[in-house]
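Hi R.,

Here's the chain you asked about this morning:
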Amino acid sequence: MALNEKSCVPCRGGVAPLGMEEARKLSLEIPKWSLSADAKRLRREFRFADFAEALAFVNGVGALAEQEAHHPEIGFGWGHAEIELWTHKIGGLHENDFILAAKIDGLLPD
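And here is the predicted structure, written out as tokens:
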């Protein structure tokens, strides 16, 4: 099943974060996202025509995050947004981070 077809499952901690190899494998499904050197975070920068487009995108990400109960770090301003994902409770990446990244990508036109 593709990442964007899955749903995030609550992570209550007590599980190990994904290792480098598993994180690299999952990152192949979200090629526009950058995997940190230590494989503990995902990051992507987005560009927009103006502030209104960036705000609309960020609001869409917020609604998606609430729906999935998995919340990213978001920064934005005029014509740009940056999103960083990791699972705080385990101090690294979980499959949920990759699922949310794929779904965020789906908010954008092709």
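One quick note: The mean pLDDT is 93.

Cheers,
M.
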